[in-house]
Amino acid sequence: MAEADVDDVALLDLTLRPRRSLTPAGFRALMVAFAAASVLYSVPFFLMRAWPVVGFFGLDVALVYWAFRVNFRGARAFERLRVGYYELSLARVSARGQRREWRFRPEWVRLERFDDEDYGLLRLWLRARERRWEIGGFLGPEQREDAAKALTRALADARRGPTRTP
User: Fold this and answer.
1) 124-158 pLDDT tens trace
2) Whole-number Cα distances in Å, 21 to 27, 38, 75
């Protein structure tokens, strides 16, 4: 393998995204059902001429819609880890699209973990010298564990260096 080819090898290219259990189609179905229930329950109040109550039913629908939209906007954030033989890069992209990136030598990076006996891996950090960066803070313990295993394997491969074939 030529030296230029080794520079381009990605031992790990991992993108971590927040998991959302509600799909866009599920969100539409939920909002339609919620709005229909709101209309159904507000009709008797309207007929009793208690019309301000109808406005509060509509306000509930608007607030639930807004809360879900904020939640979905937060799901656009992600972290990308790329490990090569000579460089580890960590890129964070916020929900607003702001990007921050850090680059390290793989041999200088260590993984730190905080495990709980009952819940599993709760926190995972990349440590380089005196600083540390939390990885996958938005993931569940199982997904964080999978990312930690993949990252540990890739860092070990990077420290071993490229294998030379005759």
Assistant:
1) 999 988 899 999 888 888 999 999 999 999 999 99
2) 10, 24, 11
Any idea which residue has 């507000």 for tokens? 42
Backbone angles phi, psi at 30, to 5 degrees: -65, -45
Residue with tokens 């393998």: 1
Q: Quote the DSSP letter at residue 86.
A: S
Assigned token pair, 74: 């937060």
User: Token pair for residue 99?
Assistant: 């990007």
| 81 in Cβ contact with 89 (< 8 Å) | yes
| Residue pLDDT, tens place only, 103-112 | 999 988 999 9
Q: How far apart are CA 106 and CA 155, in angstroms?
A: 6
The structure's pTM equals: 0.72
Burial readout 23-38 (b: 16 or more C-beta within 10 A, e: otherwise): eeeebeeeeeeebeeb
DSSP 8-75: H--SEEEEE----SS-HHHHHHHHHHHHHHHHHHHHHHHHTT-HHHHHHHHHHHHHHHHHHHHHHHHT
